[in-house]
Design a protein that fits this description.
Elements: H1 23-36, H2 57-66, H3 68-96, H4 112-178, H5 181-192, H6 194-266, H7 291-302, H8 305-317, H9 319-326, H10 328-346, H11 348-351, H12 354-374, H13 376-414, H14 426-472, H15 475-481, H16 491-494, H17 504-512, H18 517-520, H19 529-532, H20 536-548, H21 561-573, H22 580-587, H23 595-606, H24 611-711, H25 716-762, H26 777-792, H27 808-816, H28 829-833, H29 840-849, H30 852-857, H31 859-873, H32 878-898, H33 904-911, H34 917-933, H35 938-952, H36 963-969, H37 973-981, H38 983-1001, H39 1011-1017, H40 1022-1051, H41 1054-1066, H42 1080-1092, H43 1097-1100, E1 1104-1105, E2 1148-1149, H44 1151-1162, H45 1169-1187, H46 1189-1195, E3 1201-1202, E4 1225-1226, H47 1227-1241, H48 1249-1269, H49 1277-1293, H50 1295-1299, H51 1304-1325, H52 1329-1341, H53 1343-1357, H54 1364-1373, H55 1375-1395, H56 1402-1411, H57 1437-1454, H58 1462-1468
Antiparallel strand pairs: 1-2, 3-4
């Protein structure tokens, strides 16, 4: 029975705001008023019925104390009104007498220019402030006038809304009453159809007990009929076989006689043939007869048992008609009671007190409307005069500003430096006169302005504080709640209620929450709704009528005693005779000897006989065969049928007696049940029908009570109307008044210093009558001395004209940079060159100074230098090798600087030449490989790696670097692995080796086969992989340490705390971003290792002491220079930490933990491009890890617990978590924490959509693994759910902005599918059933967000546009979430209503959820645990190309080759052979 919801009216718009607005000015005025009037409203003194003489001295003192601020301000205003004109008059008289600056004489002093400029700037500032105040005053004046004019239509609209609300009350009551027709019509139809409805139910209940017995009996009769037919077939087959045997017996006898004659004719050879077998082996006349069985079964079939059973069904089918016939009187009486119930409910409208409230309030509203219309025209007319007067006074302020502006413009324009005051120009003099005119206007109009300010301030300020401010802090409500305070105002009388207990503040508060009038006015205390809707009398009459109704049905008899005896006898008599002998005979051959065997024997004899005998024997044999064939054809069918029928009756008769006994027992029990329970069945079903009938009214009564107490006359429109009146009076009118006096008071305040400063500034521009000259002697003396010194040549010339001495290596470089062969005059030139220390700066500077044509002229010398450098690499002298390496680095860098825009081909040609490139590069790579693999100097290895990095990064885009083709052909991969596997080499050069490997792997990785990719993917050496992991871990740890140091430095110290506090006052984002340069190169290496080599996954979990906690050893300073993080290797203190013993006091860490900490830092601020790229790469690495089965295994391993202190972005709404309190958990918890942190902290205007999508994908892949492997992770899932819901809320709040840039529905769909994953498969991976309950609690608690999301996607999916399809997908994905919300919300509301609880606790909601799971229906969604695996090519190619370009530029920029001092080299290579 559907009753629907109560109809709600449509209301008009709210009040229309005036055109202009000054919110900042209004806020300052409010602040000033609260400063002037800080005391609370003395409600105890307010009594409108009390006469003035009734106030005591204490009351007057308290009232004066309350108004003290206004009184002080008014006193100051009166003082200024009197003093300023008086001072102006005195000032004017004084100036006329030549005093107070009236004498046109200005004494010239030092710093006159500075004083003039300071005064000019001060007057300019004051003029700007006056202009701002005047403009704001004009705006506020105009706004006040607009507010007054719009007050009347706004109030009329508000009163119209109140009328609409009041008119809706009787309509809603009528709606509730009219809905009573629904249960009445249901009940009336049920009474009219009582026969089909009640009769069918009674028939169904009786059939439930009789169908079993009837079925058994009918099955028994069917079985007896079948058995009877089978016995009849046996009798027929027996008769047929006897006839066939009789006929064929004679044939066998005659045949035997003919055979005897033939055999006698045959003679001796045929005597052995025996004819005794030519006779039937079976005697069919001995088959037992079945006449007795047939007779017994025939008696059953001829009896009327079957028709009697059909009569039972007929009797049951007539039950509805009998019920309809026997209940006519009850139906008539019940319908009379229905009419009385209708009349009782119709009378409800007259007895509800809501209508009295509507009449009383309606009269009050009509009276208010008439009063407003009465005073409308005079108020508008007076406001027009006020507008003109106030505008005129505001214009006087602007007039002063105008004078000041002209003075500020004309004075400086006409004034010339060095001109005597008596000779100032007319333009300058006019400017000074304008200043004095402004001063005059200020004195003339100041008292009028201050008078207006004082009047509007006292009136407007008091009205605002008494009414508006008291309304805001609800002190005015206390006044309204106190009876007798306001004459002729009684809220209970106004609402037509009894007593004086009505509380205005409580009514207003409940109406703001849209409560109904029944609850708000507590009408249940005066009128009982249970009594108004009491129909128990009529329901009792209907129940009495039904109790007297007597329904009698025809008696039902299944079997009488004779029929039972007949069935029992038949079952016993129908047992078959003993067919054992018969079956044995039937299994034998028909004749004693096979006729075919005898025929064969005769044919065999015929072959040896004469013609006559032979023919007779063959004829006899043929006759035997024909007879055998004929007998088989005639006997086989009857014999087979007889055998089957005998078996059939044996099996059927064996069960017949038991079946008969069981059927008769069931029939007896059914008969006893019907005789005993049929009246009870009729009575119970009649009562059930009555209960269903009355339930219609109980449902309606319950619905009507709920609607009247909760939905009818919801009074939020009344609260809204009061708020609208407050907005009209306070926000529109009083705020305009307050803004007006505040802005005008602002002007009067700044007019006073403007007068003083304008008078002083005017003296600098007006033309004086008396001159005064000032000479600055000090300045003239200093100037004269400077001129004399300059002329006399006192300044000494520099001695820099001497030609400096050059190093020998520089002279040799100069020879190389000529067009001639440098070894032409000196055959040992090249040998000497590589013995000298390389001057990198000069060599690179020399290359940079040459233009393209000059460089091409010396190309041969550069090629020669490059080739000799390669040759020097193969020598035994380490000094030569070092110098050759440094020279190569300088050559490559210098040539690159001249060929930035060209490709690698030009660089190759310039360095070595195309004709010799292949051979030279091969020799170079072999030499470098030998140096890297040899047990030699670490300095040489360092330079080799730097040279290789220089080669790789010679172009920004390494895929366009043709030099790398030679590096691909002549691989140094094994040398890099050897460095990483050796602890000593790894400590010194691991970082450079890892960065070099990462860059080489990215050379043309999408266009061709890169051998470094192939080799890296198959590396399985544990030492090498661990070494690479340690290098990466140390680099990331170094970054984390630097960030932590800066963070501690940023947070400690008094000065830092003070600057943070001050900064937070003026800057929106007071939390300064701690900037540490990201390390993208090492991050790329980690990505390539994880992505390409599955064996590297084991390195992620390789435990070692946490590097940030280890002490730095006192080792020598490494040779690597200190440069910004991310471009050079970290300190070598703990790269070899794998070789260090694990200390029990040191926290254990691993590469994955270090990487997670690094990611938490990098992903805090994604506004910077480098951090955005690093954050994206971090998420890609986590994506690869989340897809790997083995990685997931150790991520979720309960035996591998770690404490991961992730860095969290400082935010205002949360405190910084204490790292020490973190528990040890599986690593997947840290990954989820990182994802939650990112989701929560990056909802901003520049929304990183791509990062959010990757973040949600990582969470989804982890959940898929947990679902697949049924891993129950103990994690605070609520944080994830809350973050996801807030993300959806952010997407909806910024729909317009985000849709212009992104497809937000893809992300929304992923988030919704995560919730679907939890809903559908949560029981497989959530830790406890309570977690599943908490999931439902969060969905229900935040249902408004899901409802808003559904509304948004439904709106876009129904419109034809580009977002229709993606929005439709989100709509379909929300099916289960909306099912949960729609299922549980009514249950929760019902629970709250039953238990009279306004706000349920979490435990109470969870109790409702747990008790209503059974009735929840969800839709199974496919593909939730499926995802698309990560693929770099195509999708990520552009990102990695740009990333590698950035890394290449960064590495090239920070490479340093001159870090090896000559002293260190000489110590390392102590001998030179």
């Amino acid at each position: 029975m559907e009753l629907g919801d109560v109809w709600k009216p449509t209301y008009g718009p709210g009040p229309e705001a005036p055109g202009s607005s000054t919110p900042g000015l209004v806020a300052m005025a409010h602040g000033f008023l609260r400063l002037v009037q800080p005391n609370a409203l003395p409600t105890e003194l307010i009594n409108f019925d009390q006469s003035q003489s009734g106030f005591s001295r204490d009351d007057i003192n308290e009232l004066l104390l309350y108004e003290l601020g206004f009184l002080v301000c008014a006193a100051i205003g009166i003082l200024l009104i009197i003093l300023v004109p008086l001072v102006g008059f005195c000032f004017c008289c004084c100036r006329c007498c030549g005093h107070c600056g009236g004498r046109m004489y200005q004494k010239q002093r030092r710093r006159m220019r500075c004083r003039r400029r300071a005064l000019w700037a001060s007057v300019l500032l004051l003029s700007a402030l006056l202009l701002a105040g005047g403009v704001c005053a004009l705006i506020s004046n105009s706004r006040f006038s607009q507010a007054v004019k719009s007050t009347f239509p706004n109030v009329n609209n508000t009163l119209d809304n109140v009328h609409t609300y009041l008119a809706s009350i009787p309509q809603q009551v009528d709606f509730v009453i009219d809905k009573s027709d629904v249960p009445l019509s249901y009940a009336n139809r049920s009474l009219q159809d009582i026969g089909p409805k009640l009769g069918s139910i009674i028939t169904s209940r009786i059939r439930n007990s009789t169908d079993g017995a009837l079925g058994s009996l009918q099955s028994l009769l069917q079985g007896m009929e079948t058995l009877n037919d089978t016995f009849a077939k046996i009798a027929i087959h027996r008769s047929d076989l006897e006839e066939l045997q009789s006929s064929y017996s004679q044939g066998l006898v005659s045949l035997r006689d003919r055979l005897n004659g033939t055999l006698q004719k045959c003679g001796l050879p045929c005597r052995q043939v025996s004819l005794e077998g030519l006779a039937f082996s079976a005697n069919f006349s001995t088959i037992p007869g079945v006449e007795q069985q047939l007779q017994a079964l025939r008696e059953v079939s001829e009896s009327n048992i079957k028709s009697d059973l059909e009569e039972v069904n007929t009797t049951l089918g007539m039950t509805p008609d009998k019920v309809q016939e026997q209940s006519q009187e009850v139906v008539a009486k019940s319908q009379e009671q229905l009419l009385l119930i209708r009349q009782e409910i119709r009378n409800l409208q007259e007895r509800l007190p809501l209508l009295d409230v509507e009449q009383k309030v309606g009269a009050f509203v009509n009276n208010a409307t008439s009063v407003l219309e009465k005073y409308r025209e005079p108020i508008v007319a007076w406001d027009g005069l006020r507008l003109i007067l106030c505008a005129f006074l505001c214009c006087t302020v602007l007039l002063v500003v105008l004078c000041n502006v002209f003075g500020l413009l004309l004075g400086p324009l006409g004034l010339k430096e060095g001109v005597l005051p008596t000779q100032r120009s007319s333009l300058s003099d006019a400017g000074g006169n304008f200043f004095m005119a402004g001063v005059g206007f200020s004195f003339i109009f100041y008292w009028l302005l201050m008078l207006l300010v004082m009047i509007t301030f006292v009136l407007g300020g008091n009205i605002y504080m008494l009414l508006c401010e008291s309304w805001h802090n609800q002190q005015l409500f206390q006044l309204l709640d106190t009876p007798g305070k306001i004459p002729n105002f009684n809220l209970s009388e106004l609402l037509g209620l009894k007593g004086d207990t009505t509380n205005f503040s409580e009514i207003y508060r409940q109406c703001q929450h849209d409560a109904s009038l029944w609850q708000t006015l507590h009408l249940d205390q005066s009128v009982s709704l249970d009594e108004l809707l009491n129909i128990s009398q009529y329901a009792g009459n209907i129940s009495t009528a039904f109790e007297k109704m007597d329904i009698t049905l025809s008696p039902i008899s299944l079997l009488n005693q004779s029929q039972k005896d007949l069935l029992l006898r038949a079952s016993q008599a129908a047992q078959p005779p003993n067919f054992t002998l018969t079956l044995e005979q039937l299994d034998q051959n028909m004749t004693q000897r096979s006729l075919l065997d005898l025929a064969a024997e005769l044919e065999q004899l015929a072959e040896n006989m004469g013609t006559d005998v032979k023919k007779d024997l063959e004829d006899n044999a043929r006759e035997l065969r024909d007879l055998e064939k004929e007998m088989q054809g005639n006997f086989s069918g009857p014999l087979q049928s007889l055998k089957e029928n005998i078996h059939s009756v044996q099996s059927g008769a064996a069960q017949l007696e038991g079946q008969t006994t069981a059927a008769l027992d069931k029939a007896n029990k059914t008969q006893e049940f019907l005789e005993r329970e049929m009246p009870n069945i009729i009575k119970n079903e009649t009562l059930a029908f009555l209960e269903q009938l009355l339930d219609f009214f109980e449902t309606y009564i319950s619905w009507a009570k709920s609607r009247v107490t909760k939905d009818v006359a919801r009074c939020k429109p009344i609260a809204q109307s009061l708020d609208d009146v407050e907005v009209i009076g306070c926000d529109y009118i009083m705020d305009s008044v307050n803004a007006f006096w505040f802005s005008l008071g602002w002007c009067t305040l700044f007019l006073l210093p403007s007068i003083v400063l304008s008078v002083r500034l005017a003296k600098f521009y007006r033309r004086m009558d008396t001159a005064d000259v000032y000479r600055n002697e000090d300045f003239e003396m200093v100037y004269s001395m400077a001129q004399t010194e300059k002329k006399g040549g006192l300044l000494r010339k520099s001695s820099a004209s001497k030609k400096p001495l050059k190093e020998k290596v520089v002279l040799m470089y100069d020879e190389i940079f000529t067009t001639e062969d440098p070894s032409k005059c000196n055959p040992r030139f090249w040998e000497e060159l590589f013995l000298m220390k390389v001057n990198l700066e000069y060599l690179e500077g020399k290359l940079e100074a040459l233009d393209g044509e000059e460089l091409m002229k010396i190309k041969d010398n550069i090629n020669c230098l490059f080739q000799h450098c390669i040759q020097a690499l193969g020598e035994e002298h380490p000094i030569r090798v070092v110098n050759a390496l440094q020279t190569l680095c300088a050559l490559i860098r210098g040539v690159h600087q001249k060929n930035k825009s060209t490709s690698g081909f030009d660089i190759i040609n310039m360095l070595v030449g195309f004709d010799k490139a292949e051979l030279c590069m091969k020799n170079l790579m072999e030499s470098l490989d030998s140096l890297l693999c040899a047990e030699g100097s670490e300095s040489l290895k360092s330079l080799c790696l730097k040279l290789l990095l220089c080669l790789v990064t010679v172009t920004d885009n390494i895929s366009q670097n043709t030099i790398l083709e030679y590096v691909m052909i002549n691989s140094i991969f094994e040398a890099i692995l050897q460095i990483l596997s050796s602890p000593l080499s790894r400590r010194e050069h691991g970082y450079d080796a890892v960065v070099l490997l990462a860059l080489l792997v990215n050379y043309r990785k999408y266009e061709s086969v890169n051998p470094y990719i192939v080799k890296l993917s198959i590396v399985d050496d544990e030492a090498t992989l661990n070494g690479m992991g340690l290098v990466i871990a140390q680099a990331l740890s170094e970054y984390n340490r630097q960030y932590k140091d800066k963070e501690e430095e940023h947070q400690t110290g008094f000065f830092s705390a003070l600057t943070n506090m001050v900064g937070s006052m003026f800057i929106a984002d007071a939390d300064e971003k701690i900037s540490v340069q990201t390390n993208e190169a090492i991050l790329l290496a980690l990505y390539e290792a994880v992505h390409l080599n599955r064996n590297f996954i084991t390195v992620l979990a390789q435990s070692h002491p946490e590097m940030g906690l280890m002490t730095s050893p006192t080792s020598p300073v490494p040779t690597t220079p200190v440069t910004p993080l991310g471009t050079t290797p970290p300190s070598s203190d703990v790269i070899s930490s794998a070789e260090l013993p694990l200390d029990a006091d040191v926290q254990t860490s691993n590469l994955l933990i270090t990487f997670l900490k690094y990611s938490s830092i990098v992903m805090q601020d994604t506004k910077d491009e480098h951090r955005l790229h690093s954050g994206k790469l971090c998420l890609i690495i986590l994506t690869c890890i989340a897809e790997d089965q083995y990685a997931n295994a150790f991520l979720h391993d309960d035996n591998m617990n770690f404490r991961v202190n992730l860095h969290r972005m400082p935010m205002r709404h949360r405190k910084k978590a204490a790292d020490k309190n973190l528990p040890c958990r599986p690593l997947v918890c840290a990954v989820l924490d990182l994802m939650v942190e990112f989701i929560v902290t990056h909802m901003m205007k520049e929304f990183p959509m791509d990062l959010y999508v990757r973040c949600i994908q990582i969470v989804h892949k982890l959940l898929c693994y947990q679902k697949k492997c049924r891993v129950r992770l103990h994690y605070t899932w609520r944080e994830l759910w809350s973050a996801l819901i807030n993300l959806l809320k952010f997407l909806m709040s910024n729909e317009t902005v985000l849709l212009a840039k992104h497809n937000i529905f893809t992300l929304a769909l992923m988030v919704v599918n995560l919730f679907n994953m939890f809903i559908t498969y949560g029981d497989t991976f959530l830790p406890t059933p309570s977690s599943y309950d908490e999931l439902y609690y969060e969905i229900i608690r935040m249902h408004q967000n899901f409802d808003n999301l559904y509304s948004m996607v439904l709106r876009l999916s129904t419109n034809a546009g580009q977002w229709k399809e993606p929005a439709s997908k989100v709509t379909h994905a929300l099916v289960n979430i909306r099912a949960i919300i729609n299922h549980f919300n009514p249950k929760i509301e019902s629970y709250a209503a039953v238990n009279h609880i306004s706000q349920l606790s979490e435990d109470q909601v969870l109790e409702v959820v747990r008790s209503n799971y059974d009735t929840l229906t969800l839709k199974l969604q496919d593909g939730l645990d499926q995802y698309e695996r990560y693929s770099e090519q195509h999708k990520e190619a552009a990102f990695f190309k740009e990333l590698v370009r950035s890394i290449s530029i960064n590495v090239r920029k920070n490479l340093a080759f001159n870090t090896l001092s000559q002293e260190l080299l000489l110590k390392e290579f102590s001998t030179i052979s």
